[in-house]
């Protein structure tokens, strides 16, 4: 169950980061309202806070989080951008998740 909570927390963290970066993108590249920067800042603040909730060394959290971020970015590509992931996108996401699992869940003495 701890593993499921960790992956879920990483997924929520990644979503906060992606939203926090996507909203300024909409303002800068798509000509949307500057008011999108307010929820973007809140989303990025939530991202930072969520990263602090993991009970392991911060370097390990950052390294492992990257694997889940890759998967969430591919899901975003499909659901928000409307671009279907390729086989290579999916394969790369699986590799990233395996890397995350090794980093976070491998037995260690410290």
TrEMBL record:
UniProt xrefs under SUPFAM superfamilies: Multidrug resistance efflux transporter EmrE
UniProt-listed Pfam families: UPF0060
GO cellular component: plasma membrane
Topology in the lipid bilayer: Multi-pass membrane protein
Transmembrane segments: 7-28, 34-54, 61-78, 90-107
Keyword tags: Cell membrane, Membrane, Transmembrane, Transmembrane helix
Entry's localization field: Cell membrane
Keyword Protein biosynthesis attached: no
Family: Belongs to the UPF0060 family.
HAMAP family in UniProt: UPF0060 (MF_00010)
Protein name: Uncharacterized protein
Organism: Psychrobacter aquaticus CMS 56
